[in-house]
Structure formats: structure tokens, C-alpha cells
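Reopening: C-alpha cells for the N-(5'-phosphopyridoxyl)-D-alanine complex, inputs below.
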Amino acid sequence: MSSISYVNGRYVPHRDASVHIEDRGFQFADAVYEVIAVQHGRLVDGDGHFDRLDRSLGELSIPEPMSRAALKLVIRELLRQNRITFGALYIQVSRGQAPRDFSFPQNVQPTLVMTTKRLKPFDFERTAQGVSVITIQDIRWKRCDIKTVSLLAGAMGKTEAMSKGAFEAWQVDADGNVTEGTSSNAWIVTKAGELVTRHTDSAILGGITRQTVLQLAAKDGLNYVERPFSVAEAKAATEAFTTSTTAFIRPVVKIDEQSVGEGKPGPFVLKLLKLYGQHIENHK
Ligand code: PDD
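Re-run output (same inputs, fresh job):
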């Protein structure tokens, strides 16, 4: 993390940044978050992320810690203080600090924490490198549409993926369908040339990158459908890829050690990646 963090109204050195042990984020994972990419000093799809943050807060009846306009000013100042031109911004909002009790406390000031991270600029060649994924059982709760900090299942899954040399783990529901990655959305291209990603409901997080990719596909006249797809269908697909704020669009060339299509990034994903690169450049 970069050297200055924002905690409840103050810009503080990262090493001194802390919240109370009775913060409900710590005690109950009673908190939501957002991760927003920064490219050329600007937030990528900022409004989409702010809308999702509002939705997550609303679903849990956590009051907004400040207005969107104020939040944007604080973010601009934090990026300036940390000199972030390319990187990521993390926003965490918990219900706040209160004596431990399961039920939601009333009249509590939410905790707002923001941190930044410097990352390399978006680079087509680097992002276009294929990665592998494993499949794991989806053991998460039934409100995955809320972006909460309750990330233990995802952390376990990602750790398993890393231990097997894979980039990501695709989670699979009781019907054998892929829900999403531990921190990304999952996509395939079928032999019929159809772009498929799971529809949004409470089983997955509605990714902002996912939304942008759908818009870019529509604009370019690419054929897509939002529906469940099985592991078997994914393994028989001609292409596969994942999308997320920090990984952008990553071609998936292997699923559980089995090559997808020709085992290298295909035309569909490379086209979308090119469009995504233009999307970033257009928002400079
Ligand atoms: N993760 N699904 C899950 C479970 C996620 O955690 C994420 C994002 C996504 C993709 O959403 P988006 O395109 O809005 O980033 C899908 C972020 C990057 C993270 O936790 O670091």
C-alpha cells in the first residue's frame, strides 16, 4: 500500500492507519468495499463503482459515510498525496464501532477507510498472456451480489489456485455451473461463436468490468448471452477469460490442466481486450 491512507476524516501515514478492535468490520465482516482501477490518474468506470458501493451499503442498511461529491474530493486528494497515476484505489466502509452484539446497532457512524496501491499501467501485451484456472466448489453464502469484506471463501480458493500454479479458481455451484472466480467474473466463447457469462443474481457479484465488457461487445456487434454455463461446457469452449478491475480481461487457456480451444488466447478475447484498452484511453 502507498504511504498515506485515509481513515475517518484524516490522511494518515499507512503504518499508523488503524480502526478500533470493536469495529464491526473486524468483528462481523459487517462492511463493504470497492476496488477501482486508476489509469492516467483517473478512475476507470468510477461511477459504476460508486453506484455499486451505494447498492451494497443500501442492501445492508449502512448509511453512506459521505456524499459522492465529497468522496470524489477525498479520493482526488489521496491519489495526489500518494502520487498515483496508475494503480488501484480501495474503499472500505464498515457499519462502524459498537459494543459486540449480533443485531445492527443504531446511530453509529460508519467507518471509512481508503488506501491506494501503485500498479503498472494497462499493457495489452502483458494482459493478453494466457492464464490457467482450476475449478472448486462454491462454498460462499447466498448474497454474493453484495460486495462485502467477508472474503474468506475467496481467499481459500485463491490460495488453492496459487498452490496449483493457477491464476484463479472458478467456483462451481451445486448444479455444476460456474458462478464466478474468487475475485473475477467468468466467461466463455462457445463453438457456435457465442460469448457467454453468467447472468447476475445473488449468486455472483455484478462486476463493473463485466458490465463494461458487455457494453463494448454490444457496441461492436458481438453476439453475447447472459446464462449459466457448466464446467463441461467451459472445457469444450473455444475460448475462456476472466474479468476484474485489477486483472482487466485475462485469457484463460487452461481449465483444470485441460487446454481451452487451441490452448492460446483466441480472437474474441483479444478483440475485447483491444476494445477495453481503447475504453481506458478514451477516459483519459
Ligand atoms: N474483485 N467477482 C468477485 C467475487 C470479485 O471479488 C470481483 C472483484 C469481481 C469482478 O468485479 P469488478 O470487475 O467490479 O472488479 C467478480 C476485486 C478486484 C478485488 O476484490 O480485488
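The radius of gyration is 19 Å. The CA atoms of residues 144 and 203 lie 5 Å apart. Marking as resolved unless the reporter disagrees.
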